[in-house]
């Protein structure tokens, strides 16, 4: 990890005030922003870690925890909301055993994300399962699909 972080740092060494670019590079490299990366940059650049966390938690694009192996993305835009996105989310959270603000299962198999409009409103409610579109989705079908995925 240190080697990759040094590469990122080198790329931005003259713009070290530009925390967002550093975080974007880290996220692209690791799929999330590891605490070690923030500690490393904070130490190297002599910037308080809280500044990195402030940026990382402000923008929805950043994750502070790793994604699961399987990613389920539920659209919560207006059309999908009206057509039952909340029921889908609660059904999937129950099936995956996600509580509180957890979006990833303890075994790291599934991440459940909520996003704004995916741009396919005529198929609402829309869910992506590992990037594949499930239009006119419903919780029962998705739960069955997840159970099949769990067996694999
Ligand atoms: S609101 Fe869900 S795809 Fe547009």
Model description:
This protein is an alpha+beta fold and 152 residues long. It has two domains: 2-58, no CATH class; 70-151, Glutaredoxin (3-Layer(aba) Sandwich). The protein is 48% helix and 12% strand. It is built from seven helices and four strands, in the order ααααβααβββα. A four-stranded mixed beta sheet has the order 2-1-3-4, with helices on one face. It starts with a helix and ends with a helix. The mean pLDDT is 92. It binds FE2/S2 (inorganic) cluster (FES). FE2/S2 (inorganic) cluster is lined by residues 75, 77-80, 117-121, 124, 126.
- Looking at the overall shape, the CATH architecture of the largest domain is 3-Layer(aba) Sandwich
Bound molecules: FE2/S2 (inorganic) cluster
**Head-to-tail CA distance between termini:** 31 Å
What low-confidence regions span 5 or more consecutive residues with pLDDT below 50? Answer: none
Spatial ordering of strands, largest sheet: 2-1-3-4
Cα radius of gyration in angstroms? 18 Å
CATH homologous superfamily descriptor of the largest domain: Glutaredoxin
The amount of helix comes to 40-55%
Structural class by helix and strand composition = alpha+beta
SSE blueprint and pairings:
Blueprint: H1 2-11, H2 19-30, H3 35-45, H4 49-58, E1 70-75, H5 78-82, H6 85-96, E2 110-115, E3 127-129, E4 132-134, H7 139-151
The protein binds FE2/S2 (inorganic) cluster (FES).
FE2/S2 (inorganic) cluster is lined by residues 75, 77-80, 117-121, 124, 126.
């Amino acid at each position: 990890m240190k080697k990759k972080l040094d590469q990122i740092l080198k790329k931005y060494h003259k713009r070290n005030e530009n925390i967002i670019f550093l975080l974007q590079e880290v996220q692209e490299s690791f799929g999330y922003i590891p605490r070690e990366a923030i500690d490393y940059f904070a130490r190297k650049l002599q910037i308080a870690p809280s500044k990195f966390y402030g940026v990382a938690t402000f923008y929805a694009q950043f994750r502070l925890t790793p994604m699961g192996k399987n990613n389920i993305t539920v659209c919560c835009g207006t059309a999908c909301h009206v057509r039952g996105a909340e029921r889908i989310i609660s059904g999937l959270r129950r099936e995956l055993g996600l509580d509180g603000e957890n979006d990833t299962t303890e075994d790291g198999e599934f991440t459940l994300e909520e996003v704004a409009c995916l741009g396919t409103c005529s198929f609402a409610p829309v869910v992506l399962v590992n990037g594949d579109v499930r239009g006119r989705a419903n919780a029962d079908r998705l739960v069955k699909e997840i159970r099949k995925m769990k067996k694999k």
